[in-house]
Amino acid sequence: MLEPRRVAAKSIAYYLAQQLNESVGITVGYQIKNERAISAATRLEIVTEGILTRRLQADPEIADIGLIIFDEFHERSLHTDLSLLLSLEIQQTLREDLKLLVMSATIDTQMLAKYLNTEHIIKCEGRNYPVTIDYVKASRSPLALQVVQALASVMGSVLGDVLVFLPGQRDIERCIKQAKDHFTEQADIQFLALYGALPLKQQTLVLAANIKGIRRVIFSTNIAETSLTIQGISCVIDSGLEKVLVYDPASDMTRLETLYISKASAEQRTGRAGRLQSGSCIRLWTEQQQQGFNDFQKEAVLNNDLSALVLDLAQWGSTQFSEVNWLTVPPKAHFDTAQKTLSALGLLNESQKITALGSKAVKLGLPPRLAAMLLSVTTHISNTATDTDRTIACQLAVLLADRDIFLGSNSVDLAERLLALQAHAKNPQAAYRQYPIKRGVIEPFQMSAKRLAKQISLSTLKSDYTLNQLQTSLAQLLLAAFPDRLAQRRNLGSGRYLLANGRGVYLYEDDALFNSEWLVVADCDAQKKEGRIYTAAAINMAEIESVLGTKFSHQELFDYDKEKQKITGRAITQYGAIRLKTIIIARIPDDKLQQCLLQVLNKTGLTLLNWTAECENWLCRTQWLGAQMASFKQLSKAWLIDNVEQWLVPYLTKVKSIAQLKQLKLAPILINILSWQEQQLLDREAPTHYKTPSQKKIMITYDSIQGPTVAVVLQEMFGEIQSPRIAAGTVPLRFELLSPARRPIQTTSDLENFWNSSYFAVAKDMRGQYPKHRWPEKPLLEKAGKSIKARR
């Protein structure tokens, strides 16, 4: 039986064993992280998600299992979706007799039945007690104040314990403080917290029956929404909010957002007040807002980092997005980013198939980045890693995989936390006095670290490493896990940093690592602009080079300095978005000049070239003909700039300076872009000049809007009956007919119509203005030539 949460798995196991009058581990057992109570007699084993996934991967036939129950399936974590997918494939291919049972109080039943290809749906109403629901008016007051006001309204009128739903741990802490301040005179009220980071023993105590008779107010995250029954609850106060992880594939990081819950979650939370008796619920939002809530919460597969899921699928043999039998199809970009990350970590190969290292990573039960980090110090990969390195790797992996061991610390420094663990191993009480270590976290931490040590064949965890050993090992380990989160300080005296992945992050001024030049960031908030750093370690350039040096990019960039009329160069060493080093290139070597000129031309365009009117006219002709004839090469200034290496660079072998570049005759080079046949076609169908009947050559202007135009004195056109056509006879030449003073008097693309109509009105007007010039009544019979009348 699969349970999403550890405390729920353990609680249900004890409850069911109690119904059988047995101890846990006989008929009913459980297995959660670092804890197992199972015997040969066990028939029902309650496990958490990751444990089931690893068991299915290790033994796909699962011959000793007849039924898999997916409880509280609506929570839809990545492991829940994956374990159902794997179980369904096992049922369809290896174990037709395997039974699958999916249970939930709020889920899209028809969608799930279709996925499982079944019509067997069992509806069980259970024991539901009536719960009255009250909404409150919209308020801009702080959440803690709204909660305490609602609490004050029910404490005198409602019997039993109160369960308050809040989005996160910080909100719980604020509300408890506000409540204690408000109810100072009432000593018979106990204020308790319940959230995932709370040690398992403390969570269990909150869930236990209230035998002291003191009234309890339990401030909880959505951990208490479904799978846990807290006895004695008669009233629920619901903030309507929850913390949701939102993944950003661009940075491969996740941010935590506070969002409204779904209608289904609201219903689940309300039901907590009616599990054992009738109750009441106060919703800290309006009934109108309720209508805008989503019916169901978004599935984790839509919002989360998919790297662990994709690695598990690769281990299963599914490497293509389209081949996976998704219950809910995730964004393809999230899947692609996960594969890219796993490949960078060496867990997938170029074909996106799992590597030997990837298969080892799956068995560790860690997030892929941390698994890759831990494996980087194993003997089969690193011969230089010591047992101290392996100890630090095990401790660091647990530290990053689980909740923070510090309580209310202003420092994000991981080195300080590892030193605290070392101090605790030597003298626990002294360590508690020196460091803000959370009580109750060390024991499960040590169990997890020992489990990892055993998996990498490390017999004993060391506790005597020096600060220097710690800092060196820590830097290398973090870069193995988070190579994209190397961070460079933006400015001296600043807590703002640039990550190698291009995102910005920041530290508070009172942090111990504030103003460190280099950091490796293990955890941060992936905000759009700048996210807060939660855990990190300082690192120096020597350590960066030793781990990432082979991945540095080196390039030379050249620019044209307009004022100095010279090219300047810079040699740049870069890692991702971080510029590590810049060196000015004082003198550009001859063998680099062509590369330099090419870069400059790509930036400046054609402005540095000897671009003459002849060049401009040629380009206008080619552009115009390309627009008229699809078979002709399509050219433009943009094309010339983009392809400068193709058509210009071969002619730069003797160019040694900008001055020589500007003197280079460009027109012949441009002509050679065209083949001989294309040159002939251009000359024929887009000629440079028009020859008048008087044999005078006049340049044709190729205008993209008005078309090819000839500006000519009208008398030069006597005898030209029709407008000549170009572009394979498809386009008539446009004539701008000029007066003897060379001013336009008529524009036409139809000479024949002009001679037969508007010419006579033009001639009549012109005779008065230019009486000494020819304006004959029969222009087509007149000899073309000068406009002035011949002397008699």
Report on this structure:
Helix content is 37%, strand content 20%. It contains 29 helices and 30 strands. A six-stranded parallel β-sheet has the order 7-14-11-8-10-9, with helices on both faces. A five-stranded mixed barrel has the order 15-16-17-19-18. It has a four-stranded mixed β-sheet with strand order 1-4-2-3.
User: Which class of secondary structure composition applies to the elements?
Assistant: alpha/beta
- Spans of at least 5 consecutive residues whose pLDDT stays below 50 are none
Distance between the termini: 121 Å
Mean pLDDT: 89
Across the major sheet, the strand order is 7-14-11-8-10-9
Largest sheet: 6 strands, parallel
Q: Into which percentage range does the β-strand content fall?
A: 15-25%
Outline type = elongated
Helix residue percentage: 25-40%
Number of helices: 29
| Number of DSSP-assigned strands | 30
Question: Rounded to an integer, what's the Rg over CA atoms?
Answer: 40 Å
